[in-house]
Write a structure and sequence with these properties.
heterodimer; A: alpha+beta; five-stranded antiparallel β-sheet; 5 strands; B: alpha/beta
């Protein structure tokens, strides 16, 4: 299994760096650009949520990413040092209500939990570890 | 494929404002597009076209910005029409069941006819 580790600062300006690294690593895993984009989108939504919630914290710690790929699946492990938050326990938004109200935010968790198998665990010593997995047979 | 931050160019087509949006529309850059759209709608422009043919990536923050300004344009008696969406960009709207909320045209010409 091929792997890559990456660490970014807790800043929205890092999102582009993250996407480029993920595109480079996972690009060959997908037969079409839509499936690759869905993985990049999921990663983006997780990272943006962590960064936006971490922005209010002083000296927010860097966010760590581990990429894994083999012929059957792709996996991303995201680790942070922020207050405990389990997105898999969050109630999914009512998309129709969201659309009617024209709400600009609040759809990220829906997207990545829909597109990727998502597992959460608390990080030893404080923080969160989120694992996103997708079988390549689904592509 | 390289990605770049957001670029917005504006032009007028009669009483319609065309915004050509290129690059990446994500949690960092969505506020830039929101400021541009909000300023135009607040100043009385309610018929708008967003030409997304140069848009390489869109996240939920970008979709949400377009949705909020669609509602603002409709409240002002106009509309915000999208055109030129790449497959990857259209897919994000479809994942959220938002593609039916917008008029989506193939190009600026068709979008202008629909307004």
């Amino acid at each position: 299994m091929a792997t890559r580790q990456l660490e970014i600062q807790c800043a929205l300006t890092e999102l582009e760096v993250l996407r480029l690294a993920a595109r480079e690593f996972f690009g060959e895993c997908f037969d079409n650009s839509v499936d690759l984009n869905r993985l990049l989108l999921s990663l983006e939504e997780v990272a943006a949520n962590i960064i936006e919630h971490g922005a209010s914290l002083q000296a927010a710690a860097p966010i760590e990413f581990e990429f894994f790929k083999d012929e059957r699946s792709v996996r991303i492990v995201i680790s942070d040092r922020q207050p405990s938050f389990d997105p898999t326990q969050k109630t999914q938004p009512d998309l129709q209500e969201h659309a009617q109200a024209g709400k600009p935010r609040g759809l990220g968790i829906f997207l990545y939990t829909t597109l990727m198998h998502t597992e959460y665990k608390a990080r030893s010593g404080g923080g969160n570890v989120l694992t996103l997995t997708r079988s390549l047979a689904e592509s | 494929m390289s990605e770049s931050k957001l670029q917005i160019k504006t032009s007028n087509r009669g009483n319609i404002l065309v915004l050509s949006v290129a690059g990446s529309l994500d949690a960092l850059t969505a506020s830039q597009l929101n400021q541009e759209l909000k300023a135009r709608i607040d100043s009385g422009t309610s018929k708008l076209i967003c030409d997304l043919s140069g848009l390489e990536f869109i996240a939920s923050a970008g979709v949400g910005t377009l949705l909020a300004n669609l509602r603002a344009a409709q409240t002002a008696g106009g509309n915000l029409v999208l055109c030129g969406l790449r497959r990857e960009v259209l897919d994000v709207f479809e994942l959220l069941n938002f593609s039916a909320l917008f008029k989506i045209s193939s190009d600026v010409e068709a979008a202008a006819h629909s307004l």
